[in-house]
Amino acid sequence: MKWRFLIPNVFTLAAMLCGFFSILLSLEGEAHYKMAAQFIMLAMILDGLDGVLARRLNGSSEFGAELDTYVDMTAFGLAPAVLIYQVTLQNYDVVWRVLMTSLVVLSGVVRLARFKVKDPERGQGGYMGLPITACGGWVAIFVFLSETRSFSLDRGPLAVIFIAGVLVMITLQISNVRYPKPTKAMAVFVPCIVLVSLLFFKVNIAIGAAVVILIFGAGYVLFGPLLAARGKLHKRGTT
After folding, report:
1. Contact 69/116 with Cβ under 8 angstroms?
2. Staple partner for 140: which of 8, 40, 65, 145, CB 3.0–4.6 Å?
3. What pLDDT, on a 0 to 100 scale, did the predictor assign at position 183?
4. Which residues contact 167 (CB under 8 A, 6 or more apart)?
């Protein structure tokens, strides 16, 4: 395999390991939830970098595209679901915990399968349905903040917002609502790399970065369809 194909795949595999490490850390218990959330966010950056490098190095391949699908399911489908199961709904019957996490996994599977079948451009022209990374990031940031600021995701208004956000996002994942691809705009992707890096700094800096990421993510979910529609209209006007 040539190096221009190998380098992006190395980043993809690194993202896979981050998702796997997140699952292991979640299973280790409360003391490791924060790091489990950090690994999901790190996987998100690595997953974006592999696509950027593949385009810049002309190293895109069918193998890399297939590998990326499995990474997405592990890091942004299974890992967040396990984290939700461990952190939230602890005072409810286990059936509700299983149902909630099952919906996250099933939505992710359907989202990725449909993406593979119906989008031959692999998201280069935007996405049909909310990208699976959005819900994964929402879960990771909320858990990170809850573990850093010691608030509960099991009860109270923040828990309601968290669960409601997850339900909205897994619904949007399998919808026909179109979203732009944020990693195509380096002016957006580079600040995201910086913000995720800050999650590993001192508490006050990390909390500030997490809040900014949360606001940015919510803005993407809410206003992404408008940006996608605007970009589509602009493209039509220039052709």
Report:
1. yes
2. 40
3. 62
4. 103
pTM: predicted TM-score of the whole model, two decimal places: 0.89
Query: Is residue 88 classed exposed, middle or buried when 0-12, 13-18 and 19+ CB atoms within 10 A define those classes?
Result: buried
* Reduced DSSP (H G I as helix, E B as strand, rest coil) percent helix, strand, coil of the chain, to 5: 80, 0, 20
Phi, psi of 128 (to 5 degrees): -95, 110
Number of neighbours of residue 10 by Cβ within 10 angstroms: 13
CA–CA distance, 130 with 136 (Å, rounded to integer): 11
**234 pLDDT band (50/70/90 cuts)?**
very low
For each of the domains in the chain, give its residue range(s) and CATH number, in order of start: 3-237 (1.20.120.1760)
Contact of 4 with 59, CB cutoff 8 Å: yes
